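During data preparation, a discrete fold description was generated, as reproduced here:
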Amino acid sequence: MKFIIPVRKYASVAVNPLSGIRVVDMTRVLAGPFCSMLLGDLGAEVIKIERPGVGDETREWGPPFIAGESCYFLSINRNKKSLAVNLKHPEGIRVVQKLVGVSDVLLENYIPGKLQELGLGYDQLKTVNPGLIYCSITGYGQSGPYSKRGGYDLTASGMGGLMNITGPQEGDPCKVGVAMTDLSTGLYAKGAILAALLHRMKTGEGQGIDANLLSTQVSLLTHLAANYLMAGTEAKRWGTQHQSIVPYQAFKTSDGYLIIGAGNDQHFKTLCKRIDLLELADDPSFQRNAKRVANRDKLLPILSKRLLERTTGEWLEALEGCGFPYGPINTMSQVFSDPQVQHNNMILEMEHPTVGNIRVPGHAVRYSNIEPEGRLAPPTLGQHTADILTSLLGYSQSEVNELHREKAIALPV
């Protein structure tokens, strides 16, 4: 009997898979702008709604500033157009409503209920655009006892347990160096929007999406949450060490730090050979990971003393090809001079209208048939207001000028 294997045929993949998708971005600061930037990298047209005269708060977050522009803002707002609209003016509200009518996605991070008061809530806008995907990013969710509170990464990472497990073993809780709860929420929101677009393609239905920082952080507790929920084990701070794997941490060298992740027994034997401590591999106290965890207070001082005898570079050379994870703790200068970072093209250069050449971290993912790109430099405040109103929403230039006089919109100076 001859079997025929069915072959599913797909349309060729576009260079920009989100080309033709328009996103109205009503977010500020980090989680929402990071999400919309990633959508823009994949080809979406992102129109950033900003308050006239002020704009996104991160425009003022510095130093450092480059030619008056905040490096913080420049880092997360490429591939966007800026539309300066006054949401306290009824004609400003009307501009946004008209824009939503010709868009696919609205992304916002207002306190729950605030946009509803302005006529820009999901239930109101889906009557204007039934296929609208409306993604809300908040601190704690659309309902519940904390829903009306403002939420930033710092509070969500504390309430969600991250800060309690970050920092030295006997020290105070620490925040992570960058706002990982915010950034992770932006990634969740991006995935949710893409799923909603796929759902709409299949059903024609729009979607309301509720993403929030607290839920993001709780979900990211992963195995530590499961340890508590199933075994009643409370998590604690371990510095760079790991609760269940030894050695898995950073060690001081004579001139810096070296990270070693010997995740299994064979890895540990290889480590002992590479650092000339073969006697440890034969010690019954250290032959199994469970034993190493139980006897970490005996093992780690021995490893620490040995690793302190050479430079980080010397140990990196000694561990080359060892088969387990290892690496330095890099400064920013070392990060961007690292040959693998350079090979991965993680520096994106763009030409900004006032600053000139800018350099920011690039898109992290590579595709075989998609090319994420930096089409637009981060916008100046209100840079695209007149063009969007005239070319997209059908306003005449005289109407645009009138809206400007009425302070419903702002034009760049």
